[in-house]
């Protein structure tokens, strides 16, 4: 699943759930909303609570208190990332994540105690991030709520932001295929 949509996105409701939220999100993001779509379409599936991107049956969502993210918090990834930006017991740099994506790196750093501003320019991903952050802020896991409180999402192109004000920033390069698709 690519990190930014390579093709138009169609919003569909979760089968069996009210389509109202899907319709409202489609209007907000100015995307078409259909009851059903072809299996080759890139879908933003929106239910009454959950939402995810889906392409050919592969689902991707942003959920900061999922088992996978909780595993990531404890795994070596946070150590490596933390070391890369100079996190220490008494040093928690402010971070600007210029390539927000699914927010995983940003969450790991916020969980390590850093204040993280993440910027994402693709509206669908931005919306998923905002949804995930608001769910994380009421998570039943206290560390997830705490980390969510340190995360701030910004929209648009990072290059237009005053990221120089941050002491550290991270930039996860897009894959070659993603770069080729960029406008
Ligand atoms: C490789 S992903 C980042 C992965 C992310 N760090 C994570 O942990 O999920 C790249 C993302 O950066 C976004 N992006 C790339 N260049 C950007 C820019 N100049 N401003 C804002 N977002 C950008 C893309 O839209 C894409 O969603």
Mean pLDDT: 85
The CATH topology of the largest domain: Rossmann fold
Report strand %.
Answer: 15-25%
CATH 2nd-level architecture of the largest domain = 3-Layer(aba) Sandwich
- Which spans have pLDDT < 50 for at least 5 consecutive residues? none
Most strands sheet:
4 strands, mixed
What is the H level of CATH, i.e. the homologous superfamily of the largest domain?
A: Vaccinia Virus protein VP39
From the alpha carbons, calculate the radius of gyration and give it in angstroms.
17 Å
Helix content: 25-40%
Bound molecules: S-adenosylmethionine
Q: Per the principal axes of the C-alpha atoms, what is the gross shape? A: globular
Order of H and E elements? EHEEEHHEHEHHEEH
| Count of alpha and pi helical runs | 7
Characterization of this structure:
There is one protein chain. This protein is an alpha/beta fold. It folds into two domains: 9-60, S-adenosyl-L-methionine-dependent methyltransferases (3-Layer(aba) Sandwich); 67-181, Vaccinia Virus protein VP39 (Rossmann fold). 34% of the residues lie in helices and 19% in strands. The protein has seven helices and eight strands, in the order βαβββααβαβααββα. The protein has helices at 20-29, 67-74, 76-84, 104-111, 123-136, 142-149, 176-181, and strands at 9-13, 42-46, 51-55, 58-60, 95-97, 116-120, 151-155, 168-170. The strands form two sheets. A four-stranded mixed sheet has the order 1-2-3-4. Helix 4 crosses helix 6 (142-149). It is globular and about 50 Å long. The mean pLDDT is 85. The protein binds S-adenosylmethionine.
